[in-house]
Amino acid sequence: MEEFFVSEKYVNKVCKKFYNTNFCEMLKRERMWAARGFMVSKKTNDLHEIAELCGYNDYSAFYRAYKDRFGVSPKNIK
After folding, report:
1. Angle at 10 (CA atoms; ends 26, 24), nearest 5 degrees
2. Are 68 and 41 in contact (CB under 8 A)?
3. Which end of the chain lies in a sparser environment, N or C, as judged by fewer CB atoms within 10 Å?
4. CB 11, CB 23: distance < 8 Å
5. CA–CA distance, 67 with 32 (Å, rounded to integer)
6. Is 33 helix (H, G, I), strand (E, B) or coil?
7. Is it the case that residue 1 has pLDDT exceeding 70?
8. Residue 55, CB-side half-sphere exposure with 13 Å CA sphere
9. Residues 14 and 25: beta-carbon distance below 8 Å
10. CA 62 to CA 27: how far, in whole Å?
11. Cβ-count burial of 48 within 10 angstroms (0-12 exposed, 13-18 middle, 19+ buried)?
12. Residues 29 and 69 sit within 8 Å (Cβ to Cβ)
């Protein structure tokens, strides 16, 4: 965030004011909806590729985040 000359505290304050959540949660939510969009559109069947496209280097972290967000395994969407 140094590139934009704003502090993490300020970004979280603005996110909380306008979106009622912090920046990390907002980012995770957007990543998960992007992942779901990739799965539904069937542009790729590789869950590891979808995880990478959504910013996850570790598939297990993606898997846990997806299951926490939607209550089902990403494998069940296929």
Report:
1. 20
2. no
3. C
4. yes
5. 10
6. helix
7. no
8. 11
9. no
10. 13
11. exposed
12. yes
**Which two tokens mark 33?**
């909806």
Convert the pLDDT of each residue in 29-65 to its tens digit. Answer: 999 999 999 888 877 778 999 999 999 999 999 999 9
| 53-78 b/e (C-beta count within 10 Å ≥ 16 → b) | ebebeeeeebbebbeebeeeebeeee
Cα dihedral 8, 14, 18, 19, rounded to 10, equals: 10
Tell me if 36 sits within 8 A of 44, measured CB to CB.
no
CA distance 33 to 6: 27
Q: Which residue shows structure tokens 């280097």?
A: 57
